[in-house]
Design goal:
Blueprint lengths: L5 H11 L21 E11 L3 E10 L4 E9 L7 E5 L9 H11 L4 E4 L11 H18 L6 E7 L1 H13 L5 E8 L18 H12 L4 H4 L10 H9 L1 H4 L3 H6 L8 E6 L7 H7 L6 E6 L10 H18 L2
Parallel strand pairs: 4-5, 4-6, 6-7, 7-8, 8-9
Antiparallel strand pairs: 1-2, 2-3, 3-5
Length: 324
C-alpha cells in the first residue's frame, strides 16, 4: 500500500544513516520497553449479528501510545486460538482491513484488528508496535475466553512486517505463534542510495495492478474507500514511519524467530519493496516456512481477488486442521 516518491525515499535513506544506535537493551526493542503494558481500556461499543459479536475498544499503554482495537468473536469457532493483525501503511481498521477480519471470522477464527498508533508519534518504532500488539492479544484472550498462550499472526505490508517482529518477540513473552501468514512484508534489506533507483518506475507498475482490484464485486469495492486514513495527524504518523519501515528491521527480525516457525510469506516479483528473493534467502533454513514468490505483480497485487482467494484458502485449511 505504498506509492513512494523518490524525494521521500531519499529522506528515509538519510534518516537511516543517522549514527544513533537503533536498538539497546532487549533485541528489537528500545531499552526496558518490554515492561510497557496496558494502562487503561475504554469500551467503545459492540455489534451483535448472526456471525457473532464485535467489540470495539480504545487501548492506552503506559508509555502513552493509543490503539483502536476491534475484536471479532464468531458464534461458531473453529479454534480458541485468536488471529492478531494490524493495518498496512496509510490505512485504518476499516474497509479492506475489516473485510479481511470478517473473512477470518466467517471461517471460525476469533480476530483482533488493531489500528496504527492513534496519538501523534514522530519517532515510531515497529518493535514497540509488535510488543504492544502482544499485550493487546493477552487482554482480549482474557476478555473473550481465548487461548492465552497461543496465537496466529497475519497482515499485509506494514502489518506483515510487524507480524514478523511479533513472531520474534512472542517466545520472550511466553507465547507461541502457531502460524504466521505474512503478505508482502517490505524491505527485508534496508533502503539504500544504491537500490533507490529501482523505485523510479514503481508508480507505473502499481497503477497496472489497479485493474485487478477492480475485479472485486461492487458490494466489496464500495467499502474500500474507508480503508485509507484521512486525518492529518494520522498522515503525520504514517510519513514519520517511513524510515523505520524501510530500515530492514523486518528482515533482521527473522534472525530471532524460532527455526521451527510455521507459516507462509507471499511476495511478487514485480514488487521492488518486498524483495522476494531476499525473503527466500532469509528463510532458507526454516523448514516449515513457505516463501511464495509470484511472477509479475506489484505491491498492490496483495489486494487483488486472486491474492485474497489464496490467503482465505490457507486459513480455511488451517481452520480445518485446528478443528480436528
Amino acid at each position: 500500500f505504498v506509492v513512494m516518491s523518490i524525494a521521500t525515499a531519499q529522506e528515509a535513506v538519510a534518516a537511516l544513516d543517522s549514527p544513533e544506535p537503533r536498538y539497546v537493551g532487549a533485541f528489537l526493542l528500545p531499552k526496558d520497553y518490554e515492561k510497557n503494558s496496558i494502562k487503561k481500556v475504554r469500551e467503545l461499543g459492540e455489534i451483535n449479528d448472526d456471525l457473532g459479536r464485535m467489540v470495539a475498544r480504545q487501548i492506552f499503554m503506559t508509555d502513552g501510545l493509543e490503539y483502536t482495537v476491534k475484536s471479532f468473536n464468531p458464534h461458531s469457532r473453529s479454534t480458541d486460538i485468536a488471529v492478531t493483525m494490524t493495518v498496512p501503511w496509510l490505512t485504518e481498521p476499516a474497509g479492506y482491513n475489516t473485510h479481511m477480519a470478517l473473512a477470518l471470522a466467517k471461517l471460525g477464527f476469533p480476530v483482533d484488528l488493531i489500528s496504527a498508533e492513534r496519538n501523534l508519534e514522530l519517532k515510531p518504532h515497529i518493535g514497540k508496535s509488535a510488543h504492544n500488539q502482544l499485550k493487546i492479544n493477552e487482554l482480549t484472550a482474557m476478555r473473550h475466553n481465548r487461548d492465552p498462550g497461543k496465537l496466529i499472526v497475519t497482515g499485509v505490508s506494514r502489518a506483515a512486517m510487524i507480524g514478523l517482529l511479533l513472531t520474534a518477540l512472542a517466545k520472550e513473552d511466553g507465547r507461541e505463534v502457531v502460524y504466521g501468514d505474512y503478505v508482502v512484508p517490505c524491505y527485508p534489506k534496508g533502503l539504500t542510495v544504491g537500490n533507490l533507483g529501482k523505485h523510479a518506475l514503481m508508480p507505473m507498475s502499481e497503477l497496472k495492478t489497479i485493474r485487478h482490484i477492480l475485479d472485486f464485486p461492487f458490494r466489496t469495492l464500495q467499502h474500500y474507500p474507508n480503508t485509507f486514513s484521512v486525518k492529518p495527524k494520522r498522515w503525520v504518523n504514517h510519513l514519520a514511519a517511513m524510515p523505520e519501515l524501510t530500515s530492514g528491521i523486518a528482515g533482521e527480525a527473522v534472525r530471532f524467530m524460532p527455526p521451527d516457525t510455521h507459516g507462509h510469506l507471499t511476495a511478487f516479483r514485480g514488487d521492488v519493496m518486498s524483495q522476494g528473493e531476499n525473503w527466500q534467502e532469509l528463510f532458507a533454513k526454516f523448514p516449515n516456512m513457505e516463501v511464495e514468490l509470484i511472477n509479475g505483480g506489484a505491491h498492490l497485487s496483495c489486494a487483488s481477488p486472486q491474492a485474497m482467494k489464496s490467503w482465505k484458502s490457507r486459513f480455511h485449511k488451517l481452520g480445518e486442521y485446528l478443528d480436528q
